[in-house]
UniProtKB/TrEMBL annotation:
<keyword id="KW-0812">Transmembrane</keyword>
<dbReference type="InterPro" id="IPR003844">
    <property type="entry name" value="UPF0060"/>
</dbReference>
<feature type="transmembrane region" description="Helical">
    <location>
        <begin position="62"/>
        <end position="79"/>
    </location>
</feature>
<dbReference type="Pfam" id="PF02694">
    <property type="entry name" value="UPF0060"/>
</dbReference>
<keyword id="KW-0472">Membrane</keyword>
<feature type="transmembrane region" description="Helical">
    <location>
        <begin position="91"/>
        <end position="108"/>
    </location>
</feature>
<comment type="similarity">
    <text>Belongs to the UPF0060 family.</text>
</comment>
<protein>
    <submittedName>
        <fullName>Membrane protein YnfA</fullName>
    </submittedName>
</protein>
<dbReference type="GO" id="GO:0005886">
    <property type="term" value="C:plasma membrane"/>
</dbReference>
<feature type="transmembrane region" description="Helical">
    <location>
        <begin position="31"/>
        <end position="50"/>
    </location>
</feature>
<keyword id="KW-1133">Transmembrane helix</keyword>
<dbReference type="InterPro" id="IPR037185">
    <property type="entry name" value="EmrE-like"/>
</dbReference>
<feature type="transmembrane region" description="Helical">
    <location>
        <begin position="7"/>
        <end position="25"/>
    </location>
</feature>
<keyword id="KW-1003">Cell membrane</keyword>
Length: 110
């Protein structure tokens, strides 16, 4: 399994899922309209497809590892899109999650 391929697919999945959720949030909570909601729903569907492109055959393993990418990516998205500033505990938690991603996806499993 290619580390680069896995990383790129996880990043694309995070962009699609977090971006989709953000668009729905903007459409509903910030009253930006149905086009934001529809764009978000389409993006969430894209996320579901991108997740299937991972070389790893185990759905559970891929989604468990992706959870750590989602945590870190959400903090980055919040900082870039909404001006949220993660504190040291946010950053430490995200790093712990990313270490977990590495263990789940790249440690030798039987």
């Amino acid at each position: 399994m290619s580390v680069l391929r896995t990383t790129v697919l996880f990043m694309l999945a995070a962009f699609a899922e977090i971006g989709g959720a953000w668009l729905v949030w903007q459409g509903v909570r910030e009253h930006r309209g149905i086009l934001f909601v529809c764009g978000g729903l389409i993006s969430l569907c894209v996320y579901g497809f991108v997740a299937t492109l991972q070389a790893e055959a185990s759905f559970g393993r891929v989604l468990a590892a992706y959870g750590g990418v989602f945590v870190a990516g959400s903090l980055v998205w919040g900082a870039v899109a909404d001006g949220y500033r993660p504190d040291r505990y946010d950053v430490t938690g995200a790093l712990v999650c990313l270490i977990g991603v590495g263990l789940i996806m790249f440690a030798p499993h039987r």
